[in-house]
Amino acid sequence: MATTISSFLHEDMISLRGNTLLAMFESYNLNTSTLLLYAVITFITLGVLTWTLSCPGGPAWKRGRNCIGFVSIPSPKGLPIFGSLLGLAHGLPHRTLASMAQTSQAASQLMAISLGSTPTVVASDPQTAREILTSQHFANRPIKQSARLLMFNRAIGFAPNGTYWRLLRKIASSHLFAPRKISAHEPARSLECTSMLNDITTEQSLHGFVVLRKHLQAASLNNIMEIVFGKSYNKVGDVDESMELQEMVREGFELLGAFNWSDHLPWLNYFYDPFHIKERCMALVPQVKKFIKKIINEHKLRGSVNLLDDSDFVDVLLSLDGQDNLSEDDMVAILWEMVFRGTDTIALLTEWVMAELTLNQGIQSKLRFEIDSFMGNKSTNNDYADITKLPYLQAVIKETLRLHPPGPLLSWARLSTSDVHLSNGMVIPANTTAMVNMWSITHNSDVWDHPFTFEPDRFLISAGGSNVDVRGNDLRLAPFGAGRRVCPGMNLGMVTVSEWVAKLVYQFEWVQDMGRPVDLTEELKLSCEMKQPLCAKVIPRNGASEMM
Ligand code: HEM
């Protein structure tokens, strides 16, 4: 009996446990499917809500801001609060914007989007780009938080259009970027290049390959230091000071190039700064001030000097008097900007050129033939500086600027100060940020044949091409911008890159290292750079005589 009761109890227990388990299992199943159902419903509701709440152009283009003209500005839908920000914060925004603009011809002319609360227009065709860049109502720039904190609002690039900015441009164009000033600094430029060539030879013999970028960056920094501060670390050899400057420039690049959400969503500033931009800028500025003020004081101690063509920029700024006189803090900002702008752009453009030449051996040989012929003729009255004018060399550099514009969105946008009427009937309202998608223009098959192929001949008149002017007069290829805020350093940039490429090609043959193939993937920071720095094998050319 006892056994029966116990076995009964046991059976009951089992069946009870079984039922509980079943119930649990069923409820678990129910919970999972309920959860899944909820997730799907939430997802769909959010999608529908977002779609419903999304408005043409996004939140910054409400109340028909894009329809002031008799032709309205095409406006892809943008999310509430963020607009198009989420899609553009990562990856390669110039490519994303280019495909957004492809939706219609009108959108390629101009497109209205919201970057958070910032109303923005993007031009992807030469005519609209010209009208924006050359408009007197687009002579200001929107200023990022990092640029303001790093003092750039007192330097040329971000100073608002007005007396101060005009004064700075005048000083820079007559004392820094005038052709005779650029020629006067030629010996220093050449010396930096020779030292770079030696370093490259050493690296090749030590490692069997060369990673070019660091050599170019060191040469550019030294070169600009010589022009701006009259000091080259190649000659002075102060390693600590050079490292300190390199580190400050690197940190500055990172801060200025970083995507800062609070530039477009100002309320985020109070609680979300994942890159610690504010904190890092505040830490960097005193270091920069200390470093540059020390150099200014060294110049002051030397006493006043007679300005010559190769005088450095600190001497120039110290010699200004009367109304042109600048405060020491303003000088720091201007000098810092020049070091900053002159380093990265030149190094990265030269790297792109050398990457294309390494990949395109036929083009490299053709270029070397041109340079060899020039060198063979040097007993004639050829000035070495004339090497920068060689037609094929120019064509190679232009083609690189077309295929890899260093500022694909022209880096620093413009801000409208009043309504701007375009010839196509669209009106851009005052206080709108404008970007020109130069990458989109230079990769448009309506503008360029075979836009994705590296073909320098397209710029060679003798090969049936056309000699396009890249200095802002032809908006099919304006990598230096255009209008009154066009890059003032473009001549210095072009001369330096031309000279260095000529010497790199003359002294070495550049071939791919098959273990580290050339990778042209882009990465957009402050400039658009090669994601994987160029790594190649160089073969010294025994026949190459020393270039001055
Ligand atoms: C290959 C080299 C370079 C490229 C591709 C380049 C590109 C640009 C671009 C696209 C702009 C904006 C133009 C616009 O808004 O229309 C700009 C502005 C500027 N660039 Fe360059 N740049 C180069 C070299 C240099 C150098 C070497 C310096 C000085 C040492 C320099 C100094 C500046 C300054 C100060 C501005 C601001 C001009 C203003 O707002 O008034 N750049 N650059």
Automatic annotation (TrEMBL):
Its cofactor is heme. Keywords: Heme, Iron, Membrane, Metal-binding, Monooxygenase, Oxidoreductase, Transmembrane, Transmembrane helix. GO terms for molecular function: heme binding; iron ion binding; monooxygenase activity; oxidoreductase activity, acting on paired donors, with incorporation or reduction of molecular oxygen. The keyword Oxidoreductase applies. PROSITE patterns: CYTOCHROME_P450. The chain crosses the membrane at residues 35-55. Belongs to the cytochrome P450 family. This is Cytochrome P450. The lineage of its organism: Eukaryota, Viridiplantae, Streptophyta, Embryophyta, Tracheophyta.
